[in-house]
Amino acid sequence: MAALLACSDPAPGEGKVATSETIWCGLGGATELTQDCTLERGREEGRAAFVVRHPDGKFRRLVASPDGQNLLAADGADQSQSALKGDRWEVILGDDRYVVPVNADAPKP
Hints:
By secondary structure, the chain is mainly beta. Helix content is 4%, strand content 47%.
């Protein structure tokens, strides 16, 4: 799993994956958010990096923008739309939506 977050040898403290946490998501154009996705946290090139896993096994990789205000698609054809709103990022990536807490201890919506 850490290999997904870092393609080269990680610097100290980078590329490490914490335990997964459940997050809110709306997949495939769903209008309502459910707690069906899991999130893994790590670091990539000094920035926060995430792997969001869907219940069907698909996943999306995200990395924080240099200013920390947005989460950007780390790979793939889709570009993300996101914004930092208080204690969470709200992300749209293709037909999928995610609510990513800034901190693992942040309250969920």
